[in-house]
Design a protein that fits this description.
By secondary structure, the chain is mainly α. Helix content is 77%, strand content 1%. The two termini are 18 Å apart. The relative contact order is 0.16.
Length: 360
Amino acid sequence: MTALHTAASERAPGRLTARVALFAGLGTALVLVCLGSAALGQYGIGLADVAASTLHRLSGPLGLGHPVGDPFAESALWQIRMPRVVMSLLVGAVLATSGALMQGVFGNPLAEPGVVGVSSGAAVGAAFVIVAGVDVLGQFTVPTAAFAAGLASVLLVYLLSRSGGRTEVVTLVLTGIAVNAVAGAGLAFCMFFGSQTARDQIVFWQLGSLNGSRWAYVVSALPFAVVGLTGAWLLARRLDLLALGDRAARHLGVDVERLRLTAIVLIAVMVAAAVAFSGVIGFVGLVVPHLIRMAIGPGHRALIPAGMLGGAVLLALADVVARTAIAYADLPIGMLTALVGGPFFFWLLRNTRARAGGWI
């Protein structure tokens, strides 16, 4: 679809109604999922108590609402559950938005944040400090190593794929595949030489989990998420123009190389920060943007904010299932998203091939 067609579709009354309905639905779902996630767990807290306590905290000097009557429940709510809920919202919004950016920049419906090596690089960084037993930053040692290694991997992909002052999409993809393969070998190396305890930690980290989320982690990831999400929204119009192709976008005044670099940097920063605290969580960046496009079309000015909400809702809901599906067990959230995303990815492959008449 061209940028002109996209703009025209955005003005269509039916499309506008669909967008209003989608945003209203996602906003309502976000509130309900957050309250439900905070209420559910091994120690049950009523929805009304969660809502009243949240209102009390947010209202400040106005004094609205009230704390939970049971001090233990109040402490569990705000020291254990709420940090996890907020972290799930941040990570979900970041992954979905990054997926939309990747698909817009690469012009490929199958692109997702892992293509540029950020997740595999972060996994190697985390595995290395786990195996080496490094603990210089205390509880932030593994997240910091994962964040730095994720950024380094993306930088390496970009530098290796750059030639003649430009980066071609195909070269970026192929370079990302190569770096992901090397990172996989590095991860296997760490697991081979690590102790059994270290191997268990690495495997659990790779599967993704929000267990152990704390306010300190949320505060650390929040600035990177805000910068990345804001930057993605600001790039929306130029991403629509990029849909015309590199040459046409340049004629319309888009600096394609700068746009591509900016998008990759934003993806690297916010995904590295999210993965550093949650581990590897796949398919959110692939599934959510496509579901949003099916509902309201491909225009990025609506796709990106809707993707933020959709990703937040999806991951918060997945986290509820991870905590409550099996009593006294916390399932890896990456496993749950893969169970949903895998079949969707297969359907997407089949659907894309059927529409295109084969791969070009």
